[in-house]
Design goal:
There is one protein chain. The protein is of the alpha/beta class. 36% of the residues lie in helices and 19% in strands. It contains 37 helices and 38 strands. Strands 14-13-10-11-12-15-16 form a seven-stranded antiparallel β-sheet, sandwiched between helices. A seven-stranded antiparallel β-sheet has the order 31-30-27-28-29-32-33. Helix 14 packs across helix 16 (471-485) and helix 15 crosses helix 16.
């Protein structure tokens, strides 16, 4: 352990500052996940501890950060210079802290600085000043600074246009491949590796477009070099400390967010580490980050040892969250305190409570982070991993050794893998050429193909040649593979120390997981728990933050308090995001208030739930049956909550209950019954509710017969999903036959479900809380998009504006009766459809849903907190929540999509979810609330220009209202031939636009790429959308032009555009809005 600090006299914090504006990071997107909810929440707590008034702006309702308790004045508004200026004008803060909100906050702060807004209102940046941010983020200035202090950088040049780029390629670098990195972007967005001139031009043009300052760095390729990250902090008296070194298992060429990473670095020599450490101090000093944390990335040539600086983030980053969770050192909290004048030696380490923050953390374990991908959601996406990040989440694990840690991480991914292979998903008889291809091309499953290679006789040298992974890692992986091949006879204790799961061992031995568990217990081979203490055991840790391993000394501390365990959601992925972590955190807060000892189990390093002080005890563990049962054996809780963490803990619920684990709240049986089609249909009949007609088919002819009986269009979905294909809406027999032949493998064992699709129906979400005696509707949410688009991808509004009183009353009755029949104790979500004033039930989930944070922020009632208290035995009447709250303002939740990460794929929405995050718009006017939601969701609505409209025949009549509103707002309309004729026949002026296949230039794609079009309305003709339709929508995404792909959202956009001509949006704090609910 190093104490790298010169003595500084005790100096008070900065008392000239009274009010601080903290800028959040906005929605969860690829490259910027919920780690900034964690860091922002920590910062707000830290600043309030010091007596500062905190004002927060963030557009993401699914965060703990935007809870009204986190900051006394919370604005859920777009993070744009215009809206943040409005907040500054209203609040008059003394300082702005932009370094804890990712690239979004940093870019917004820099634009406010450039516009003179900060100077105008006397607001100063703290954490890092504008000069330091610009020097760290501007590619050329950073390169110049590194050269000045004698550090090595890749041969490179900065280009602002294509001409400059070609000059750099020819005269500075000279040979391919080349790396392109846009300035001031997120997660490598817009960047890539160019292996030839065509790729070079494509990536540079994309990078220039995505960079807010139209700047790209073009640099020599360092493919195959080691990539090392150093997390460093500095205070205003120039004390510098290293928090953590992180080594990428994958070599340079893969974005660090997509790479498996290991902390501390495993393969550096003492001299190499010392050089990197000193270079990190030199860099943070030269860039001028005076108070806070920075992440610095290096490349190391494995052949020569040459060290090169790649880039620096002059802010808290994704890796900062990982470093915090890996070491127990709360970087974000200390960064906030350093920003207001404290020095490292004045602050106490929160985990030991005795050592100063100036002590560099020391660990006696190994941490692995493994990214989580969801390529199955994007069928035509390029699955190769490059310098542009594509993962949507990550897991972290802790073990005594790299082998144990890696196996735990791999079984945490929720992808059906049980560890480093040796499971039911191992490839069967792969060819040598198949293995070579999977190793040579970086992909999401390459770690498992490494196991396959070693099992099939590849040598370390052969694998190193194909992957450029360091031989030390390959040797470790080969040892694991060798042990795995002997798993049937391997000593049980040895297998567990190597991280093998009971399921892997059971498969090798031909017995059950329970058999292995029983044998282990009989032999005394049980998991023990180590402490994450920041100091490798040199000082006592006060905070119980645990990881499992197999050995002698169990550091878990027993207690005789009443305990409730909360199972978290695991890695973020599409369909299961931060919303569920929000619910878990609220459960912990609520149960603490009731005097319970709360125990959190989770494997996600990005989250607030895995913060060391969210719960009384934290187990950073995989959410598998084995690992959870081990913790239950250790802690013996009186209750376990499985209904808040999404599908991850629900998948364990029945097995846990069978093994005697006390599940509290709604029973796993009730949750299963709601998914049983036959039981659920009978239940609906009993309480007088309708479902769309449905049937099942085991072959093509049966599917056609069912569809003809119930009528097209139909929603079809396999009971067993193959190749990531899921639900689809089909409009005619030919489409259905194609689906049955190509998308599914139907059989008596694998029937296809065929439901009548309620075309143009209004979809409604209803969240309910029930205590077994009474139930209360939290909110009725009206979807903007029509039924048939996944509820997680649809915009929705509270309160609904298009629901009749009769339908409102019927939904209230239905929701309450369903809660009673399913014996719900906690939360429940119902999805309804309204068509021709008839109510249909789509589905019911008696558990927490992703809408809970949005509803809670909208109505000012913390539903997840109340639900946790109900689950512990309290009644809603005791909690004071007995009737629906209807706010006197409108809130709109909008989804955010990762289309820009997967260029060229179609962006049309359907029954399968694609969004990564959400935002919220709030206003007393519903159209303006929708307008704000579009700004926050990167789909800002235009104020002038040319609007392009091209719709399918089904939408021709309904598009007229959209076109009239757009025309009335003063826009010019252009349309393709069929749509143009229909608009002209109905008295709406428009110009002709040409599709690509018509052969006329400029066609509509040309015009979109030339920024002649300001908004696109384009609805698909069929599932096999013609190439020109896909090209139109893809061009809109790639050029950042706003768009709508269904008539309902086009109608909402047009109304908002027209409305915004005459009205001005207002801003109010969440606290003010909630106070108006009471009035």
């Amino acid at each position: 352990m190093a104490y790298i600090c010169k003595f500084t006299p005790i100096m008070p914090k900065d008392t000239s500052i009274k009010k601080i504006l903290v800028v959040g990071s906005g929605p969860i997107v690829i490259g910027q996940g919920c780690e900034f909810d964690y860091s922002g929440t920590q910062a707000c707590k830290a600043l309030r501890e010091e007596g500062y008034e905190v004002v927060l702006v963030n557009s993401n309702p699914a965060t703990i950060m935007t809870d009204p308790e986190t900051a006394p004045r919370t604005y859920i508004e777009p993070i744009t210079p215009e809206y943040v200026e409005k907040i500054i004008a209203r609040e008059r803060p003394d300082a702005m802290l932009p370094t804890l909100g990712g690239q979004t906050a940093l870019n917004c702060a820099m634009e406010l600085h450039r516009r003179g807004v900060l100077e105008k209102y006397g607001v100063r940046m703290i954490g890092a000043n504008a000069e330091a941010i610009d020097k760290g983020e501007d590619r050329q200035r950073f390169k110049d600074a590194m050269v000045k202090i004698g550090l090595d950088v890749p041969a490179s040049g900065v280009a602002h246009n294509m001409e400059e780029a070609w000059d750099i390629a020819k005269n500075v670098i000279g040979s391919y491949p080349m790396i392109i990195r846009p300035a001031f972007t997120l997660g490598g967005s817009g960047g890539g590796i160019a292996y030839n001139k065509a790729e070079f031009e494509e990536i540079v043009l994309r990078g220039l477009d995505l960079s807010p300052v139209s700047e790209v760095l073009i640099e020599e390729s360092l493919l195959g070099w080691k990539e090392i990250e150093i997390e460093v902090m500095r205070d205003r008296t120039d004390n510098c400390i290293i928090i953590c070194s992180i080594e990428n298992l994958d070599p340079m060429g893969i974005h660090t967010g997509d790479s498996i990473t290991v902390a501390p670095a495993q393969t550096l020599t003492a001299r190499e580490y010392a050089l990197l450490r000193q270079a990190s101090f030199d860099i943070i000093r030269e860039i001028g980050v005076e108070s806070g944390g920075s992440n610095i990335q290096f490349a190391v040539d494995p052949k020569t040892g040459r060290q090169v600086i790649i880039e620096m983030n002059p802010r808290v980053s994704r890796s900062s969250a990982l470093a915090s969770k890996a070491t127990g050192f709360p970087i974000a909290k200390f960064a906030a305190k350093l920003a207001v004048g404290y020095t490292l030696d004045e602050l106490r380490n929160d985990i030991t409570k005795t050592t100063p923050a100036a002590f560099e953390p020391t660990v006696d374990y190994v941490v692995c982070k493994v990214p989580r991908f969801t390529f199955e959601k994007f069928k035509k996406a390029d699955e190769r991993l490059t310098t542009s990040m594509k993962s949507v989440g990550e897991v972290m694990s802790i073990g005594r050794t790299f082998k144990e840690s890696l196996q735990k991480a791999l079984r945490s991914l929720e992808t059906g893998r049980w560890g480093f292979g040796f499971d039911a998903k191992d490839p069967v008889n792969p060819t040598r050429s198949e293995i070579v291809n999977k190793l040579a091309t970086p992909n999401a499953d390459r770690i498992f193909w490494l196991q396959t290679a070693f099992v099939n006789g590849f040598t370390i040298e052969e694998v190193e040649e194909l992957t450029a992974i360091d031989p030390w890692f390959l040797d470790q992986l080969k040892q694991l593979a060798d042990a795995g091949m002997q798993l049937a006879t391997l000593d049980l204790a040895e297998a567990k120390k190597l991280g093998f799961s009971d399921r892997q061992i059971a498969l090798a031995r031909g017995c059950s997981e329970d058999d292995i568990r029983a044998e282990r217990k009989a032999k005394g081979i049980t998991a023990i728990y180590g402490l994450v203490d920041t100091c490798a055991g040199e000082y006592q840790a006060i905070t119980p933050y645990y990881y499992s391993t197999y050995g002698e000394q169990n550091e878990a501390r027993p207690s005789d308090r009443r305990k409730i365990m909360i199972l978290g959601g695991g890695p973020n992925r599409i369909g299961q995001g931060i919303e569920f972590d929000y619910c878990c955190v609220h459960a912990s807060f609520a149960l603490k208030e009731l005097g319970y000892e709360t125990i959190m189990v989770n494997s996600n390093p990005e989250t607030v739930s895995t913060d060391f002080d969210t719960s009384d005890k934290l187990y950073f563990e995989p959410l598998t049956l084995e690992d959870v049962l081990n913790i239950v054996d250790q802690e013996k809780p009186e209750g376990v909550i499985v209904q808040f963490g999404g599908q991850t803990p629900l998948n364990l619920a029945a097995a846990l209950e069978e093994r005697g684990v006390p599940i509290i709240g709604t029973s796993p049986r009730s949750i299963e019954l709601a998914e049983d089609r036959k039981y659920f249909s009978a239940l609906l009949d009993e309480i007088g509710l309708k479902q769309a007609e449905a049937g099942t088919a085991t072959n093509e002819e049966e599917a056609v017969a069912v569809a003809q009986r119930i009528g097209f269009p139909v929603l079809v979905r396999p009971s067993f999903v193959l190749g990531g294909r899921a639900m689809m809406i089909v409009y005619d027999e030919q489409e259905l036959r194609t689906y049955m032949r190509e998308a599914v493998d139907a059989s008596p064992e694998r029937p296809v479900l065929v439901d009548r699709f309620l075309e143009n129906a209004l979809e409604i979400d209803v969240d309910v809380i029930a205590d077994g005696e009474m139930s209360v509707v939290g909110a009725i949410m009206q979807h903007v998009e029509p039924a048939g688009i996944h509820s997680g991808d649809s915009a929705c509004m509270i309160p609904p504006s298009r629901v009749s009183p009769a339908m409102h009353a019927e939904m209230m009755r239905a929701a309450k009766e369903l809660a009673a029949k399913l014996n719900v104790k906690g939360l429940m979500n119902c999805q309804f459809a309204i068509k021709d004033e008839q109510l249909y039930v789509i589905e019911v989930n008696p558990r927490a849903s992703r809408t809970v944070p949005f509803v809670s922020k909208s109505i000012g009632v913390p539903l997840a907190k109340l639900a946790a208290k109900v689950m512990s035995g309290m009644k809603l009447s005791e909690l004071g929540f007995t009737k629906e709250v209807v706010p006197p303002y409108y809130t709109v939740k909008e989804a955010v999509f990762p289309w820009n990460r997967f260029p060229g794929i179609d962006v049309v929405l359907g029954p399968e979810m694609h969004s990564t995050g959400e935002v919220m718009g709030v206003d007393t006017d519903p159209e303006l609330a929708y307008l704000k939601s579009q700004i926050s969701a990167f789909n800002p609505l235009p104020t002038e220009g040319i609007v392009f409209i091209s719709v399918n025949d089904r939408d021709k009549d309904t598009v007229l209202e959209v076109a009239r509103n757009i025309s009335e707002a003063g826009f010019t309309i252009c349309a393709t031939k069929g749509t143009m004729i229909h608009l002209l026949q109905n008295g709406i002026e428009c110009e002709r636009a040409y599709k690509v296949w018509e052969g006329r230039r400029p066609n509509i794609v040309d015009r979109i790429k030339n920024n002649e079009i300001c908004f696109v309305v384009n609805t698909p003709g069929s599932h096999d959308a013609r190439a020109d339709e896909v090209a139109i929508r893809a061009a809109a995404v790639s050029t950042g032009i706003s768009y709508a792909t269904d008539i309902s959202s086009a109608r909402a956009c047009a109304a908002a555009i027209l409305h915004s001509k005459n009205k001005v949006t207002e801003i109010r704090t969440l606290q003010e809005l909630h106070a108006s609910n009471q009035g």
